[in-house]
Each structure stands twice: as structure tokens, then as C-alpha cells.
Specification:
The complex is a heterodimer of chains A (334) and B (362). In chain A, 30% of the residues lie in helices and 23% in strands. Chain A is α+β, with helices and mostly antiparallel strands. Chain B is an alpha/beta fold and 362 residues long. Chain B is built from 14 helices and eleven strands. In chain B, α6 packs across α11. Classes of the chains: A alpha+beta (334), B alpha/beta (362). Chains A and B meet through α7 and β13 of A and α1, α2 and α10 of B.
Chain lengths: 334, 362
């Protein structure tokens, strides 16, 4: 097989078949995919959660993961945010002519490993190859299906005053890591993406209590955008306490240097969990003992005041609005 | 071990300072924070919400993006008509509206514009693109000028002939003098910029204090720095003292960074300069000296600064002079918002209007 992707890999002929067999089936291997039919068939029973997402990240490989791991985690976490048990995943690849096959294999291998970690099967997929410069190395779309167990009703509309806002760990790690790699900033620091599948720890929480009102993974736009969405959906206010928000020193340092705000930076392995005060100890008890949740803590509360708005009680003791982000954060001059 | 920030963000100490400030009962005091980073920090930590009536914070002209004139953006866009030109710029210039477009819109049209984190990065772009001509958009105050100067010196030393600088660098002290003379502004005290002061030192502020009777405090950017700076200024003003106090000694010395000043002086010389929204201020700008004119994009591309009309209704000029607050502008939060800035103050994260809008206090 050629060591780079060529247009022949998207032709549908023997070369495409070789690619599917030698790369995709090798790493995604499972009983449904291996049937090689035009569609995956399986039984579903219960309330279904269904989601899709596209991944176009630059750089494709970054500290803590790559576009493939991100594609699986992103969709798994979207399902988990509704309390669903992720079951099946589809993936569509758009490959740029010239992509090294070894890079594709590394991406696909990590997708297979992450899917196994999450307990989800990649059951159907598609590959297209586009001419050089018509795409940026590789784009991936993933769609996922999961089942929401009976008795669980988690939604952005469910936050009520008095609820507490929990974050499952430090914020801004992924966004900061990508920024450093994308811009090749010569800044020393142990910053890597937090990219991780969270469905197992969410499942564990739900085995202890189903009294969860809202869950959402704060990806693009970070914690700030996600909480604004929830405040607007639930028509409540959200108050954050700046001194409780966990941020790694290295991330804070880079953000200070470049004029960025960790609250607005993307996370790919964190969940915001909004629960009644009575469930806080149970939820934190599970999270703090889990690999992806050791830094979990309460960062805020849901209020009757200032409906639809997120307010921060600052370190200085003042209050100010945490607004929706506008476009990408751009580095400042001084 | 605590990091560098923790000690200056202690909520308990902040509460002590706030309590002291809340006891102020005297005449109205107008304090101008000169620097955009101060404006940001004040908004970010909700410091205005902590001050009693009678202590007003006014935002000055210290955001380099905000005061960059319209014609500079127009000229940068004009440069892009040369197909072999790559523009290298700091990120926060991207959204600044020119007369008809912005760098962000031009990039979307396919123009080659690269965001850099240091002027030195633009030299790397020049070295890697020998068939192109790289122009670095140099704006900023005393803080950023030395590194722009160093970049030109390095380009000169390494004979990088496909690199030039479109400069609109400015200096703070003359702008402050003009503001100090403006009775409408009514500044009682300056909160002096930590970054700029680190370069120029504190001597120039003594002149402002003695000649114009306006005292000042040099402060850092953490909440305790700012709260303590305001408290000190209130005390000085109440005592009718005209002194300048340096409360940022961990970074700022009386002499400043003489080496940085020397490097900047080697490459740049003083010139008149247009401040967006304010107008032409004598000897408040910097132009590249003749001996380095082969790196001066204004000369290489024969660009002519031309006056351009600001958007009707935009009050950026009055806001930059501290005469109005962003909320006094009819466009603020309506037709002028961060996703569609009408005036320059809404563009940069350090801009007064953007900071007010983003960190609206409740």
C-alpha cells in the first residue's frame, strides 16, 4: 500500500478496500462493522440519545491526544451529558490527498483504543479523499447513539435556583495546549489536552444518584459559554466564585501572558454537573475517586437573581458579568 | 509554593482595602487609569462595584489598539493589494474596523495575514518566505516599542531584505500632558501604567505632578495592586499632595529599563502622531529613523496617511479622553458590540468599551 493517501484511496475500488481492511477494520474491529454491509444493524430498546459532531482541528496531533481521540471523546461525552450509555458510533473521514498513511493509522488506532475505553462500538463509516489543499489533512465527523436509562431526565432546561455547579477538574487545559502547539509558542510548561471519555464516571455517578439536573461538557467557548447557555435555557441566574475555579498554574500563566481567559478556553475532558445541594456530596464522592475527576469541586450556584446571566464573584470581592464569548480569543499586544 | 499571582489576589486583603475605601466621604474624586490593562483588570475583578460614590474611575487613552488611527488600518489593507505581501500582526488588530474593511475580513477573502505573538516571529515568516515581502504592523506604547526596535536591528544585522515595519508606535507622557491641561476631563489623579513605567521609569510623572498639579500612583495589575493604588491616590488627593508614589516597585524602578529605552531610541525618533478619536498630538508618536528606512514600510510602499471620517455617533474620542463613559455613548451595546465594533474602543480586549461590555458589573 502507498505510504501517502492518494485519490485512489477514495475511488471505491481495490485501493479503498485495502485501506478499509488494513486500517479501519484492523483498529475498529467488532462484530457489527465486520459484516461489511451498507448499514449497521442493531437492536435498541429505550429512550435514545443521538448526536453528531465534526472535527477539523489544527494541529492534528497535540500533547494529550489527536483529532481521532478527540472525535470519539467529543461524541461520547455529548451522549454522556444526557446520562446516556453510549453504544454505537459512526465516523466519516475526509482525507486530504498526500496525508501520510502512518498518520492516518495513528489517528485510527487511537480512535479504536478510546472507543474500547468508553465501551462504544464504531459500527459504520465512510471515507472520502479530496485533492491537495481542498482540506486540511483530515476532517472527521462522528455520530453516536446511546440509551438513556429509565428515570433519568438531564437537560439544559432543568437548572433550578439553589442548585450547585460542579466542574470535574481544571479548566482551559485543552484550549491552552492547542494554542501553544498551533502557534508554536516557545513557552515551557507541562500543559496537555484533557481529552478523555467521561461516560464511565458519569455512569458511576448515576448509579449512586439520578438526581442530576444538568450536565454539559464545556468544549468550544469553555465554561463561560456553556454556563451562559444553561442560564438562558433554564431561565435562571448562575453565580460563580472566582476563588473556587480550578485552573492549573501553567494554564493561568499562559493565559495571563497572552491576555486569554481560561474560562473561555475549550475543555475536552471536563463536565459541568448541576445538582441539588443535597446531591453534591454524593457526586463529589464519586468524582474525586475517579481518574478523570480528582480535581472536581463546586464552583458556583444557581440563583433566582439576574435570570439568563452568569455573574462572577471576583477574587477582589466585586461582581461582574461573565458574558458569552465573541469569536475566538485573540492574543493582545501588551 | 504559591504562584506569582496568589499573593496579590488574596480575597481577605482585598476585603480590608475595600472596607477602607468604602469609608470615603469627601468630594468627588476622578481617577484616570491610563493603561488598557488596568481597565481590563478593573473590569475583570469588578473593582468599580466595590468603590463608594465619590470615587470615579475614568479610563484613559492607554489601549494601543484603540488609539491606532483609522488610516493605519486602511494603509495595511492597501498594502495587501500587493499579492506578494504578507501582513504580520498582533491578534487584537484583526477586528479593528478601517473605513471599509478590517484585517479579519480581508483574511476571510484570502489575503495572507498572519497573527504573531512577538515582532520577532515576523522575521521567521520573512526568512521562510523569501519570495514574499513581510510587513509587521507595529503599534503600541513604550512597552512594545523596544522589541519592535530589536526586530528591526536584527533584520538589519541579518540583512533580511524582505521585511519591513508599518509603524504607529506612540508614547504615553505627552498624551497625559495634553489630558492634564484639558479642564473638561477634570482628572484629580493618575493610576499610572505598570508596563509602560517598567520601561520609562517614574521621573516623567514627577514633571506631570509638579507642572500640572496632578498626583499619581504607579500600580501593578492584580486586584490588590489596583485597590491599594486607588486607596493611596485617594489619600494623596485628600492631603492635597502632588506627589507620585511607586507602588509597583517589584517591577518598576525610578530609572526604568534604560537599555530598552536606548534600543528604542536607536531605531525610532519622536514625531507628531494621530490618536484615533483624539486627533494629532505633537511629538507623541515614533517613526523609524532614516538610517533604518529600508525597513520603513511607509517609505518603501509610499503610503500616505490620510484623514478618514470616523463613524457618526461614535464617542470613542470622548471616551479615550475620559470625558464620557462607554455607557454614555448611544451606540454602546446596541449597534456597537464586540462582534460588530463601530469604534476602536470596542475592539481590543483592553478597550474601554469592550472591557465595560464584557465585564458588565451587576
Amino acid at each position: 500500500m502507498s505510504d501517502i493517501i492518494t485519490l485512489a484511496h477514495g475511488s471505491g475500488g481495490k485501493t479503498t478496500g485495502d485501506l478499509i481492511k488494513n486500517i479501519f477494520q484492523k483498529h475498529f474491529n467488532n462484530d457489527i462493522l465486520s459484516k461489511n454491509d451498507d448499514a449497521a444493524s442493531f437492536m435498541l430498546s429505550g429512550k435514545v440519545a443521538f448526536t453528531t459532531d465534526s472535527f477539523v482541528i489544527t494541529p492534528v496531533f497535540f500533547k494529550g491526544g489527536n483529532i481521532g481521540k478527540l472525535a470519539v471523546c467529543g461524541t461520547v461525552n455529548d451522549l454522556a451529558a444526557l446520562g446516556a450509555t453510549p453504544l454505537y458510533l459512526s465516523c466519516g473521514f475526509i482525507l486530504e490527498e498526500g496525508l501520510p498513511v502512518k498518520d492516518l493509522e495513528a489517528i485510527v488506532e487511537s480512535m479504536g483504543n478510546t472507543a474500547r475505553e468508553a465501551g462504544i462500538k464504531i459500527v459504520t463509516g465512510d471515507t472520502k479523499v479530496v485533492q491537495k489543499n481542498a482540506a486540511d489533512k483530515i476532517f472527521i465527523n462522528t455520530s453516536g447513539i446511546g440509551i438513556i436509562p429509565d428515570g433519568i431526565d438531564i437537560s439544559g432546561y432543568n437548572a433550578v435556583p439553589g442548585d450547585r455547579v460542579i466542574i470535574t477538574g481544571t479548566v482551559g487545559d485543552h484550549g491552552c495546549s492547542i494554542l501553544l502547539e498551533r502557534e508554536k509558542l516557545d513557552i515551557y510548561g507541562d500543559i496537555s489536552s484533557d481529552c478523555a471519555p467521561l461516560n464511565r464516571i458519569i455512569g458511576e455517578i448515576l448509579s449512586k444518584t439520578t438526581n442530576i439536573h444538568v450536565m454539559r461538557d464545556p468544549t468550544r467557548g469553555g465554561v463561560a459559554a456553556t454556563l451562559n447557555e444553561i442560564a438562558q435555557q433554564s431561565k435562571v441566574g448562575i453565580k460563580l466564585f472566582e476563588d473556587r475555579i480550578p485552573v492549573k498554574d501553567e494554564v493561568r500563566g499562559v493565559c495571563e501572558l497572552l491576555g486569554m481567559d481560561p474560562l473561555y478556553m475549550a475543555n475536552e475532558g471536563k463536565m459541568l454537573v448541576i445538582v441539588p445541594e443535597s446531591s453534591v456530596d454524593t457526586v463529589l464522592g464519586v468524582l474525586k475517586n475517579a481518574a478523570y475527576g480528582t480535581d472536581s469541586c463546586v464552583i458556583g450556584e444557581v440563583t433566582y437573581d439576574h435570570k439568563g446571566i452568569v455573574v462572577m464573584n471576583t477574587l477582589a470581592g466585586g461582581n461582574r458579568i461573565v458574558g458569552m464569548p465573541v469569536g475566538d480569543q485573540l492574543p493582545r499586544i501588551c | 509554593m504559591d504562584n506569582l499571582f496568589t499573593a496579590f489576589r488574596d480575597p481577605k486583603l482585598a476585603a480590608v482595602l475595600t472596607e477602607k475605601l468604602s469609608m470615603y466621604k469627601g468630594n468627588t474624586i476622578n481617577i484616570m487609569e491610563v493603561c488598557g490593562t488596568h481597565t481590563m483588570s478593573i473590569s475583570r475583578y469588578g473593582i468599580r462595584s466595590l468603590l463608594p460614590e465619590g470615587i470615579n474611575l475614568i479610563s484613559g487613552p492607554g489601549c494601543p489598539v484603540c488609539v491606532t488611527p483609522l488610516y493605519f488600518i486602511n494603509s495595511a489593507i492597501e498594502l495587501l493589494e500587493n499579492k506578494d505581501v504578507i501582513i504580520a500582526t498582533f491578534g487584537d488588530l484583526m477586528k479593528v474596523p478601517g473605513s471599509h474593511s478590517s484585517l479579519l475580513k480581508e483574511k476571510a477573502k484570502g489575503k495572507d495575514i498572519r497573527i504573531v505573538y512577538s515582532p520577532m516571529d515576523s522575521l521567521k515568516i520573512a526568512s521562510n518566505n523569501k519570495d514574499k515581502r513581510v510587513v509587521f504592523l507595529s503599534v503600541g506604547f513604550e512597552t512594545t516599542t523596544p522589541i519592535a526596535a530589536l526586530t528591526i536591528l536584527k533584520a538589519h544585522e541579518e540583512k533580511i531584505d524582505n521585511f519591513s515595519v508599518l509603524s504607529a508606535n506612540k508614547t504615553i507622557p505627552n498624551a497625559l500632558k495634553i489630558l492634564a491641561m484639558d479642564k473638561d476631563v477634570g482628572v484629580h489623579g493618575y493610576l499610572y501604567p505598570g508596563h509602560v513605567s517598567a520601561i520609562i521609569g517614574t521621573k516623567l510623572y514627577e514633571e506631570l505632578a509638579s507642572q500640572y498639579g496632578i498626583p499619581g500612583v504607579v500600580a501593578g495589575f492584580e486586584p490588590l495592586d489596583i485597590l491599594h493604588g486607588i486607596l493611596t491616590l485617594v489619600e494623596i488627593i485628600n492631603d492635597d499632595s502632588k506627589k507620585v508614589v511607586n507602588e509597583y516597585k517589584r517591577v518598576v524602578s525610578e530609572e526604568g529599563n534604560t537599555e530598552a529605552v536606548r534600543v528604542a531610541d536607536k531605531v525610532f525618533s519622536a514625531c507628531d502622531s494621530v490618536w484615533r478619536g483624539i486627533g494629532n498630538l505633537p511629538l507623541s508618536g515614533l517613526s523609524i529613523r532614516e538610517e533604518f528606512e529600508t525597513f520603513d514600510a511607509w517609505k518603501i510602499y509610499n503610503l500616505k496617511p490620510y484623514t478618514a471620517e470616523e463613524t457618526p455617533g461614535c464617542k470613542c474620542g470622548e471616551i479615550l479622553k475620559g470625558r464620557l463613559k462607554p455607557t454614555d455613548c448611544k451606540l454602546f451595546g446596541k449597534s456597537c458590540i464586540p462582534e460588530n465594533p463601530v469604534g476602536a474602543c470596542m475592539v481590543s480586549s483592553e478597550g474601554t468599551c469592550a472591557a465595560y461590555y464584557r465585564f458588565r458589573e451587576v
